Amino acid sequence: MNEKRTDLTIGIISCIIGIISYVLTLNFPTFGKSGVPGPEFFPRILAILFFIISIIQISKSFVEKNDQTQEVEKFNYSRMLVLIGLFVFYILFLDIIGFFITTIIFLMILQKLLAVKFKTSLIVTFIIIMIIFLIFDKLFCVSLPMGIIL
Description:
Helix content: 55-70%
Low-confidence stretches: none
Order of helices and strands: HHHHH
Structural class: mainly alpha
Shape: globular
Strand content: under 5%
Number of strands: 0
């Protein structure tokens, strides 16, 4: 499968996921306490961003010149299975171990699979956790799972 076709396929699938995600947020309450954005705000923003990025991906498949078309390397099924297992681990252990520890493990293993240097991985993990914590705990006043261990 050439790169253009892969970009188009991924773009269309992502576009559909973005639309479905947005439609699902329509059932969420609109406003939270004291007029601040409610539970629908963040997922709806993510759905819109996902949709926009997928449109860019689709347009990229039409804009690139034919001479830039390359064969995509063979799909790595073992890496995909590891990623699925990692996501399942994250979902299953989030309430048990808690947000901080589970997210650290998840992000560090994910970045190891992506061949990110250890020091960079630590910095990125710390920044991502702090951003998520500040958005949910401080801005939306939604506490993240602490786990039964803590």
